[in-house]
Amino acid sequence: MKSDRHIGLDIIRACAILFVLSVHFFLNTKFYETPITNMNMYIQTFIRMGCIMCVPLFLTLTGYLQRNKLPNRSYFKKIIPILVVYLFYSILCIFFRVTIAKEKGNFLFWISAIENFTADPYSWYIQLYIGLFLLSPFLNLIYNNLITKKQKIGLIFIVLIMTSFPAFFNGRFNDLLHFPTSWRAIYPVSYYFIGCYISEYKPKVRKLHGILLLLLVIGLETMLEVYGSSGNGNKFSTYIGEYDSLLILIQAVIFFVTVYDLNIKNSIVTKIISLISILSLDIYLVSCLTDKVVYKTLLKYFYTSQEKILLLFIPAVFSTFFLAFSVSAIRHKIIQVR
């Protein structure tokens, strides 16, 4: 384990992967089919909104860590380990789909599935990350050539107007505010530049204040989602938006600046957190298989209603986590790519 790792960043990455698996709980149960009309479903909505910052945290981490990277051969070669890990889990998923799920397809079909990122159903994020990785050195040229702090804040604000503002305001609140949507899809760049800014200026937040503000934002998101569900048969409707939403961006930034400078002295705890952080990509990619195992069992033997399934939230998430972690650790041991 490298001694120069920043445990605060490892905590963020470890939390982010747990948040991903938690969001998958709602995806793999009947949360989105169940009306949000009682306290139990309000709690589930609160948990779901609290965990939805998972991908934004990964994107912000990328900006934080890549801020000084330059567009040279040594940098671009670092994409190879990521592609190798992706290929490994794509082949593993294909094996599962052919042997267990009995899916049909010839050799060219599965090669195409690897190339178009459908072999592993969760690999959409790899498409996103590859693009951001390749752009990072050039985004750095934009960010680092701005001279003043004010200019860099201006850059971030302009990108937010192009991405997060339309994602949150357009079509909501009686359309009182409406922003152009042509550039909304570049929302990962918003998180990237925010990560660069945090990396450079190291903003400080009192931990208690950060936690309270975070809970307040998640509570506001929950209330808005409950309100928005009324126009969708009381079912969840992503009323405030997804990863590109301004409110979710605020939530992710609060969490990031509250946690990134944490320091833990216990060496055993730091080693565990660091290992989870190192294996986070593996855990994410293989969780498409572990989710199938866990939730197939859960729905078959334990599911009676979405309200009652909340009691199994923690066991389900940690079951798929430990299965995914075990497979990831084996891959890390026998196929070392970094």
From TrEMBL:
GO terms for molecular function: acyltransferase activity, transferring groups other than amino-acyl groups. Coiled coil: none annotated. Pfam families: Acyl_transf_3 (PF01757). The chain crosses the membrane at residues 7-27, 47-67, 79-100, 122-141, 153-169, 181-198, 210-228, 240-260, 272-289, 309-330. Keywords: Membrane, Transmembrane, Transmembrane helix. Residues 7-327 form the Acyltransferase domain. It comes from the Bacteria. InterPro entries: Acyl_transf_3_dom (IPR002656). The keyword Oxidoreductase does not apply. This is Acyltransferase 3 domain-containing protein. It comes from Clostridium fungisolvens. The lineage of its organism: Bacteria, Bacillati, Bacillota, Clostridia, Eubacteriales.
